[in-house]
Design brief:
GO terms for molecular function: RNA-directed DNA polymerase activity. The protein is α/β, with parallel strands linked by helices. It has two domains: about 5-95, no CATH class; about 125-295, no CATH class. The protein has 13 helices and eight strands. The strands form three sheets. It has a four-stranded mixed beta sheet with strand order 2-1-5-6, with no helix packed on it. A two-stranded antiparallel ribbon has the order 3-4. Strands 7-8 form a two-stranded parallel sheet. A hairpin with a 5-residue loop joins strand 5 (about 95-100) and strand 6 (about 105). Helix 9 runs parallel beside helix 12.
Length: about 300
């Protein structure tokens, strides 16, 4: 996979496809048109039952200026009725553009993406909370999306269709949002309650913005406890979002206790992969996150 495509997969919510012939734009996974990514609203089970390949393009799904998906989908998913069929132009290939932080669309390139993300990092105090050398890239990127409130939560879906009856898959009490998922939902609140004790971040409420502000104000450096705090936050956000999506698309569920264990085990694996300077604090962290945490020490 070349560099551009590798980056595109990670940041596709900011990559906008302008439809030409429709032959290089994924019907399910790319962002195109003025609507939600279709793969987020059409369950895989529907596509599987209709024998629709995961790699279909926009052009593959259009015939005689009409969509080829079943009419039953439109009844079950009202948002599909509002999805306009693009006018294909066989003489014009699809264009890939990058949506900058100011909303401007520009030509997609690795340089454009890097400069835009780097500039955003210079303007916010949570930059070092998100981006650090010991972090897992996919965890850091999802945390970045969550802080920017760019995850496809239900409150954003309802902007397209206010009549949708959506409930948080974790607590079933209201529709989800960034502030609800992190960490005002009864489920995620319990997960975070356990984890924030481990990183000594007990003070304050669970409002998402306040959590980020408080943790950004704490030391964000190469000290082992600072690294662990950042790992725990990013890993927690990543797995809560993953659990939420698993319940939507596969109906698989984990209790909050089970999810805490998954997160803790994941953090332990991350700790095993980093190199540190030997110190009493490092030894204390190894004991706290044991058994099995044995750091790699610098020579």
């Amino acid at each position: 996979m070349d560099g551009v495509n590798g980056i595109k997969i990670k940041i596709r919510h900011y990559v906008i496809n302008i439809i030409g012939d429709g032959k290089s734009t994924s019907i399910w996974h790319d962002t195109w048109g003025n609507h939600e990514v279709l793969g987020n609203i059409v369950p895989k089970a529907y596509r599987y039952a209709a024998r629709m390949d995961d790699n279909l393009t926009v052009a593959d799904m259009i015939e005689n200026d009409n969509w080829l998906w079943p009419n039953s989908w439109v009844q079950a998913i009202p948002m599909l009725a509002a999805t306009t069929v693009p006018k294909l132009n066989n003489d014009q290939p699809d264009k890939v553009q990058w949506k900058k932080s100011n909303g401007e669309l520009t030509k997609f390139s690795v340089k454009t993406v890097w400069e835009d993300m780097r500039n955003q990092g210079q303007q916010v105090k949570w930059n070092k909370l998100v981006w650090y050398s010991q972090g897992v890239p996919r965890h850091s990127f999802l945390l970045w999306l969550a802080i920017k409130e760019r995850l496809h939560t239900q409150d954003r879906l309802m902007l397209w269709n206010p009549n949708m009856n959506l409930m948080c898959q974790l607590c079933s009490k209201c529709n989800d949002s960034h502030n609800h998922l992190f960490f005002n939902c009864d489920y995620s609140k319990e997960v975070w309650r356990v984890l924030k004790r481990r990183i000594k971040a007990n003070n304050g409420d669970n409002e998402w913005r306040n959590v980020i502000d408080r943790m950004s104000d704490m030391p964000c450096n190469i000290n082992i406890r600072s690294v662990v705090r950042k790992m725990v936050l990013a890993t927690c956000v990543y797995h809560i979002w993953r659990e939420r999506n698993a319940r939507i698309f596969t109906s698989e569920k984990q209790s909050h206790t089970e999810l805490v264990k998954v997160i803790e085990d994941n953090v332990r694996l991350q700790l095993l992969s980093i190199q540190v300077k030997k110190s009493k604090e490092v030894e204390a962290v190894a004991v706290e996150w044991g058994p099995g945490v044995q750091f790699k020490f610098h020579n």
